[in-house]
């Protein structure tokens, strides 16, 4: 059985652990680099991204997390986890924060505003429905949530949502006294997949809908199948190379 690690530094890791138990999957809490060696995939939960980054630095986790992501094992970031996985984050606190990276996108750390502007909404998720069944919508719980402003060509968009009318103006400063509006569209990206990386700006673990967790587990199965296929091809190639040249194979004959 696949073992799913859940980064347990701060935030909603207990909720992810409970969601995994509901679908009969073993989850383990990860707080140290060496614990990543015993898991097949990893969930980086929502929480306070700056605090999580400081704790990750304290435990020297960033090098191990980057190696895990780069190694091709499935990784899912929710809310703050999305920020961690982005190649670029804007709207950060003074001094910024360290990122794991790997996801070709630009994330605004606090796109939807303050804690008081948290909200729930129905999201259209046809690809999730096609893969895991059920309705073609899911409940999106956004808690002081980020959003993806730009996504690279290899990033598959799984969900977007309308930009709330009461969202505060989102700007970035470029030098003293100069500001530029960076988002003016009426919809914004909130769920994506790029290879072994899944990212959602909302919190599926706070709902009873287990499809996102099953979707993530299917990514793990795909990863293992590809690894097995590559191993089989490699073994087959070596076996063929070991055969004497220009000699017919001595195969059994069944009558």
TrEMBL record:
UniProtKB keywords: Glutamine amidotransferase, Hydrolase, Lyase
CDD domains cross-referenced by the UniProt entry: GATase1_PB
Keyword Lyase among UniProt keywords: yes
Basic and acidic residues compositional bias, start-end: 238-248
GO molecular function: glutaminase activity; lyase activity
SUPFAM superfamilies per UniProt: Class I glutamine amidotransferase-like (SSF52317)
A single cellular component GO annotation: cytosol
Disordered: annotated span: 231-255
UniProt similarity note: Belongs to the glutaminase PdxT/SNO family.
Name of the protein in question: glutaminase
């Amino acid at each position: 059985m696949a073992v799913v690690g859940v980064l347990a530094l701060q935030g909603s890791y207990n909720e992810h652990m409970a969601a995994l138990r509901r679908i009969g999957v073993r989850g383990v809490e990860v707080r140290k680099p060496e614990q990543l060696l015993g898991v097949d995939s990893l969930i980086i939960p929502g929480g306070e991204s700056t605090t999580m980054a400081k704790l990750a630095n304290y435990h020297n986790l960033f090098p191990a997390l980057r190696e895990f992501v780069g190694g091709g094992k499935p990784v899912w970031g929710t809310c703050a986890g999305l920020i961690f996985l982005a190649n670029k984050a804007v709207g950060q606190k003074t001094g910024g924060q360290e990122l794991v990276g790997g996801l070709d996108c630009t994330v605004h750390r606090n796109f939807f505003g303050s804690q008081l502007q948290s909200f729930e909404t129905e999201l259209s998720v046809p690809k999730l429905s096609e893969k895991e069944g059920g309705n073609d919508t899911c409940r999106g719980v956004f808690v002081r949530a980020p959003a993806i402003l730009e996504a690279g060509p290899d990033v598959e968009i799984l969900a977007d949502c309308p930009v709330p009318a009461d969202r505060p103006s989102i700007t970035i400063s470029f030098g003293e006294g100069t500001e530029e509006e960076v988002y003016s569209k009426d919809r914004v990206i909130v769920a994506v997949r790029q290879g072994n990386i899944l990212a959602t700006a909302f919190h599926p673990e706070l709902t009873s809908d287990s499809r996102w967790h099953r979707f993530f587990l299917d990514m793990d199965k795909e990863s293992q199948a590809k690894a097995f296929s590559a191993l089989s091809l490699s073994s087959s190639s070596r076996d063929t190379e070991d055969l004497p040249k220009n000699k017919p194979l001595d195969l059994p004959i069944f009558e």
